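haha ok so turns out i had the wrong file open the whole time. this is the CORRECT one, sorry everyone. sequence first:
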Amino acid sequence: ALAGFRESRAHDYCRPEFCYRVPARLVWIDNIRLCGSSAEMLVAARWLDEAAACMRVTWKAADSLDAVSEYDFVGGHWQHGNATLSITTRLQGKIMAPFPTRITFEDLISQVGRLGHAIGMLQIPAGHFYLAMKWYRRQQNAFGRGLVRLTDLLDVPPSVRSSFQHWVNSALSSTSFSR
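then structure:
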């Protein structure tokens, strides 16, 4: 039950009219990824198996626990052998380099999202790109007021373009070290 009856002194039951019954569902969990030392991985895998047993869940491929040291996941290229993280070539290909002098508002939204994701993964402080973010926020406000449409072509001022280019260069050339 997800809700209780407030006027009750005992909050450990639920009146039927406030009760939400969850029907049995099949759930698919795709790609659980664990990172750590071999010993930590075994403990985590045992914990997952115990949790699955409590929920009466069986793993589709219980024997497919593979230890990999390098893979791509959510736009990041993880290399555990040397403890580094960089953005994937696929994400690199979606980032406009060099940053254009004219861009549609829709493309600007996409680029800021991709660049924000990249610097978040790489742990690069967003404050380095304040001017670009400030200009983007102003474009968002204009969009909210109906002054800009998604298909409008925006002229990027040179100082703002320089800030965006710095953001692009930082995202494309940086590597995060997790040790």
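The first helix runs from residue 38 to 54.
again sry for the mixup
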